[in-house]
Description:
Elements: H1 2-5, H2 21-30, E1 43-44, E2 55-56, H3 61-66
Amino acid sequence: MNAITGISPEKGAIPIHFDTDEEILAACIETIGDTPSDQARVVHIRNTLDVQNISVSKAYAGEIASNSKLKTLTDWKEMEIDPTGNIAKRFRTFNNADREDR
């Protein structure tokens, strides 16, 4: 916990463990200093071996709009947390028919 309090979780000698996604997200937000949580740059990656489709926070909207290699596949949505404290809707698989030209 001192690594989180010290705003440097990467320096912890023992990997930090949390029981729920909600606890993880709260701890992460604590380490970003004065950045408001609605401006947090959050990336949720299902599989680091396949990063073609990832979920990102709206804080990345400007970068996505200005980079022709990136596009949004859905409208922006809030991350939903279920009653157990975990992310309610995990990743959706997209195929070419699902993709909107954005």
